Amino acid sequence: MTLTNNSKRRKELVAIAARLFCEQGYERTTVRMLADAMGIKSGSLFHHFNDKQEILCAVIQDGMESAMTIADQALEGLTQPKERFKALARAHLSTLLNDRNAHVVALYEWRSLTDESLSVLIDMRDRYEQLWQQVIDDCVETGLIKGDQPLIRRFALGALNWTVQWYDADGEKTPDDLAQALGELIGLG
Amino acid sequence: MTLTNNSKRRKELVAIAARLFCEQGYERTTVRMLADAMGIKSGSLFHHFNDKQEILCAVIQDGMESAMTIADQALEGLTQPKERFKALARAHLSTLLNDRNAHVVALYEWRSLTDESLSVLIDMRDRYEQLWQQVIDDCVETGLIKGDQPLIRRFALGALNWTVQWYDADGEKTPDDLAQALGELIGLG
DNA sequence: TTTCAAATCTAGCGCTTGCTTGGTTTTTGG
DNA sequence: CCAAAAACCAAGCAAGCGCTAGATTTGAAA
């Protein structure tokens, strides 16, 4: 196998792993559980991944890539700070709640990553946060919001990320409703 | 041993366990690591706790009790909704960042609890959230904030809980600064 | 049809895990 | 000072863990 294999089969396996890691946590999910859910024997898993930790890394990486792509698309063509903020919040909630498995894993399980995997993922996360920071900086500079800019970013992302703890997809509120509500709460009616 | 032993020794052990669980996660922390850090042999651990999971439960329980106590104290004597909100936010950040170990564990590791432990802790959490809900309801009813009330509570607690991910105790901002900043962000200057 | 790599299986190794048991030391209350 | 209780230790068991090695099957290209 190649080190960073991106075959279709591998993507499928990663999605299955994401579900199990999300449901039971990384450490409690054994390679045998993963293999069972994938319909193969545990030994065969190591044809696709060098070790268990690599599966975890792949899950988180897929989630982050998807978040980045959707955020970029959402901002395309928008110039007004207020609209950009609201679009970014909608995009964030959209990935967060659609690719929920991967994102829950990313939020909960990064401590099980090797330093090497971690540094790759931290780079991705930093790039994503920079996107947010620019949008928030614009809101502050045009006087739409007041306050310490990095702090606002952290509060906003905290409020949004926390939704995975309580959001019910079968409920009445859509992710877009939530994004709108957050905008209103911080004065971006 | 009694089932819910609350001896001083046990409290010490729970605090040590909180540190290890916070640093490495519950599943990655072995009973041997715990025993080493406590200065005893791994077998002796089971004189104080029936099983490993009970240690986790005790860690979270201690954290929640402390949060509840501090919140009650903070609200005592305050009647103005705005002041009550800000006091509650200060209290929340104060426990969150002082008893950080226990609270990080509570946020990250509840999936490793048995159903029995979980139901006890969920009751405590619900009571705590009710405290927040009342304060927020007052703010909305007196026109200080606008929006869906449970949603505001969730956004606020999300923003606050997320601080454990990035807050640096050696930095320039105090927990009180953060509480103040959150208040300003949602229009409670 | 032959070839060859990718994908899978079979079988199990070496190690760690949570936890138990039975005995010893330390602490404490009368 | 002494007995009972609490705390601890030494030794190890049974189960499960991540992972490996070598053989076998599958599937597409030549």
From TrEMBL, chains A, B:
<dbReference type="Pfam" id="PF17932">
    <property type="entry name" value="TetR_C_24"/>
</dbReference>
<feature type="domain" description="HTH tetR-type">
    <location>
        <begin position="7"/>
        <end position="67"/>
    </location>
</feature>
<dbReference type="Pfam" id="PF00440">
    <property type="entry name" value="TetR_N"/>
</dbReference>
<dbReference type="InterPro" id="IPR041490">
    <property type="entry name" value="KstR2_TetR_C"/>
</dbReference>
<dbReference type="InterPro" id="IPR036271">
    <property type="entry name" value="Tet_transcr_reg_TetR-rel_C_sf"/>
</dbReference>
<dbReference type="InterPro" id="IPR001647">
    <property type="entry name" value="HTH_TetR"/>
</dbReference>
<dbReference type="GO" id="GO:0000976">
    <property type="term" value="F:transcription cis-regulatory region binding"/>
</dbReference>
<keyword id="KW-0175">Coiled coil</keyword>
<dbReference type="InterPro" id="IPR009057">
    <property type="entry name" value="Homeodomain-like_sf"/>
</dbReference>
<dbReference type="GO" id="GO:0003700">
    <property type="term" value="F:DNA-binding transcription factor activity"/>
</dbReference>
<protein>
    <submittedName>
        <fullName>TetR family transcriptional regulator</fullName>
    </submittedName>
</protein>
<keyword id="KW-0238">DNA-binding</keyword>
<dbReference type="InterPro" id="IPR050109">
    <property type="entry name" value="HTH-type_TetR-like_transc_reg"/>
</dbReference>
<feature type="DNA-binding region" description="H-T-H motif">
    <location>
        <begin position="30"/>
        <end position="49"/>
    </location>
</feature>
